[in-house]
Hints:
The protein is mainly β. It folds into two domains: 14-75 and 133-148, Chitinase A, domain 3 (Roll), CATH 3.10.50; 80-127, Beta Barrel (Thrombin, subunit H), CATH 2.40.10. It has one helix and nine strands; from the N terminus they run βββαββββββ. It has one helix spanning 50-56; strands spanning 14-23, 29-32, 39-42, 64-69, 83-87, 101-105, 111-119, 123-127, 137-148. Strands 1, 2, 3, 4 and 9 form a five-stranded antiparallel β-sheet that branches. A four-stranded antiparallel β-sheet has the order 5-8-7-6, with no helix packed on it. Strand 1 and strand 2 form a beta hairpin. The longest helix has 7 residues, at 50-56. The radius of gyration is 20 Å and the shape is elongated.
Amino acid sequence: MSDVIDLVKVADGTRVTLNFALKFSDGAVIDSTFDKDAATFTVGDGKLMPGFEQAIYGLQAGACDTFIIPPEKGFGVRNPNNLQQFPRKQFKDVDLIEGLMISFADAQKSEMPGVVESFDDDEVIIDFNHPLAGRNVHFQVEIIDVQQVDV
């Protein structure tokens, strides 16, 4: 009888518990669970972006690794069409500064954040790209548990 235990590997339909950190190339932390409760999700349930899920496919409990997730597989590439021009008078009650995040409502009345890209006396340019669009993100993971989900 073998003492080797077959550990479940991360794959579609597995429930994964992990610690993760998202970091910029300079090491600055964007988000992390290493200092709080681990995250648990089922691969393919939409809680983790597909590019991040694909990076951990095949890993087992106990694995630690770091991956570079390019924009195309992470938060997307910057789209110049997501820069929108507004008349300055629409922001008369706002103390504008570049980088200020402002909440807008889209056509379905859903909240949509935009960031002040630039402004002058006549117009304001708002960037509706995701703040991490166009950036490589370093994805550090520690796989705590992987379970096969009963279907």
